[in-house]
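Bench log, entry 3. Co-assembly request; chain sequences pasted below exactly as received.
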Amino acid sequence: MTLLRTTSGVTRPEAVTFEVDGASVSAPAGEPLATALAATGILGLRESPRNGAPRGAFCHMGLCQECIVAVDGHTVQACLTPVRAGMKVHLGGTLK
Amino acid sequence: MTRTADLLVLGAGPAGTEAALAAAEAGLDVVLLDEQAEAGGQGWRAPHPGLTLPRKGADAAAGDAMRERLAASRVDRRLSRRTWSVGGAFRLDAVGPDGAEAYAAPRLIAATGAHERVVPFPGWTLPGVIGLAGATVLLKAQSVLPGRRVVVAGAGPLIFAVAAGIVAKGGEVAAMVDMDGRLAWAKRLPGLMRRFDLLKEGLGWTLSILGARVPLLAGHGIRRAEGDGAVSSVVVGPVDAGGAPAPGAERRFDCDALAVGHGLVPGGEVPKILRAHHLYDRLRGGFVPELDPFGRTTIENLYACGDGTGIRGARPSAAAGRLAGLAAAYDAERLDEPAFEALAAPSRAALEAYGPFADTVAGAMALRPAQVAAIAPETVVCRCEDVTRAEIEAAVDAGAADINQMKHFTRCGMGPCQGRMCGDVAAELVAQRRGVAREEVGFWTQRVPLRPVPFDALIGTFDYADIPIPPPAPL
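Structure output for the full assembly:
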């Protein structure tokens, strides 16, 4: 899944750059991080604790906890976290 | 510092917002809390700051109108707050942008909405598989397509809304897979006709889907999703009227996203945690609090409204919210009986008028026992803890009689989603294995935290250096 931002008639906030495990990613400021990651093709955000199976954003509304990542050292839900310039995102290793 | 008020309203969707507005108009000091930055809930959700969307649909317009009325009201809006604890008569603890907060009031209205039900199938845990309600959020609040080629599948009106939403934004729907056949929808027509405006919206979706030549598979369900690290194809096949797989050709559709849902489940944690009496209502999506016509629960001064009290949809929820807000004002002696009756009458009439339509839609979204019965044994049911159907049934065979015992045996429902994603299906599996009614199996015992909350958010800026160290005792 690569999310696609539609363009027709849509105005988005200016893009900002942030880091995902050291790599530079850009997305409109304020966009939910789960959306921004999927738009760059990053779907697998963590592994399930028992089977080690890949998991990604599922409910997109803050309930399922599948999109847990670390941002600037804090455990957050990517679907509820707005993208900010310079934020450092670390995938995996959290809620593993 | 605890912010005290006359009334706390938890949840700022259509139900909670209207409840807060009605109570504030009657003179109550009302605090309205929600996790999101704007009121509107999921259905009437506002786009994130700086994002402007092209055409406004009916839901966006309704949400904007409600948010304008809220902004002009005396309601104390405490948004971007994650409420993690609820205490009796009544206290809420939340974490907001500036850290931990507490709220107290003699009355509480719970309007916490609903969440998605996805009946598990092999591959449903793959990244790229998302809920239909989540897909609606992406499309409507973010103007984002869930993928370049999306399979839309499940049951109820949301599949039409999502498939039409993708088509309207120029995306590709690889297939629309509806568990219901044409006969099932024909049977629903009389109920749907009761709200011609909403039926027309649904027909508009259908026409746009047909116009885009989307392969439409009626009476089909998902057999499995496949992919290495993320979903890359979906296999579908015929299902019978009850939702169980039926003989017939299977088809595979390549895709990079699957949006799937089988209805909604009321997310009424607050009345459960406060031990209000609940009833099982299959049509309404699960266990719902027992309510009087105005939303009073069996706990004094605790009210509940909206989809968290049973699935009805946004507009009926708004009417139910007004009634709960008015009841709180009346019970607080801010409205006399004639004023209360007069103010409540239009909302009571609206709720009644929505009845047949709401019942029909809820029927399409209700859990289908035969679909649950057909889940393959090795399928993961509890996503958080990777617990399979076979493990749930082994626990039942070993003596787990209700859903909480099954949880203790297996860890099913014990993970960070707190059983929200699997609870309804897991309880159905336990009931079916035992051959008893859902009432016998019960619901998860709700406990705080209502939502996961990181300790650092509760501790705030408190540090080791802040711990007062008494002088050492003399030797």
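The two ends of chain A are 22 Å apart (CA to CA). The mean pLDDT of chain A is 91.
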